[in-house]
Amino acid sequence: MRPGPVGESTPSGRRPRPAQWVRGLRLRSRRARVVAASLCVLLAAIGLVLVLPSHSKPKRPPTPPAPAAAGTPHVVAPSSAATSRAVPKSPPRAGCPPVRAAASLSSVPVHICIPAIGVNADVLQLGLNADRTVQVPPLSKVSEPGWYKYSPTPGALGPAIILGHIDSAQFGPGVFFKLGQLRPGDRVKLTRADGMVAEFRIERVVEVPKSRFPTAAVYGNTPNAALRLITCGGQFDASAGNYLDNIIAFGALVSLRHG
Length: 259
Hints:
By secondary structure, this protein is of the alpha+beta class.
């Protein structure tokens, strides 16, 4: 029965004696404190759940319309990087502000700009894991892609490989969350540490199962300077904690010039 206000009659119609009344108040007071404490613990638990990283994913990222390509999932570093070639200059595209690069003989990429999907970020360097698979950027840097340092530098002969996260349960959408929205003709600019800017034109975007990753098409030799942008995609496997597919954008060099 719900406790009544102070002084309310009992079900028998008799009012409790003062001693009983005081004991009843004390008992109710203790019960109220217990209930209040229980509510505080419950609310604290709810608050803890709200601030903990969620395993639910952000809204599904866009996927490319191109058909999937077949291949093998094993990744092997190329034996050597090719030398760079000069190509005809073209005017810079709007939406990519100039990036001041350090004066250096090194030609590693330090910045990437993709106006079509709003990417404007610094570039990390990635190597190989102990099992000879390609490293990916740490989840703490979900907003920064990484250049696979055993691939050619952007603007050199062969495919420059750039990898980035699609999203993170803790940090939200990643730098390549919208990679599947790229279309043929979109431009990508990579600023290098030597002050050169390599601009690429997207030729195609595909989504492939990770079990059939097109290794040769992605990492194999090409007759010209090329670009590969790679992220995850497809369905998210909650039990495994990862996506089942990869989204890959293929690009070709259109200019290499001083920034």
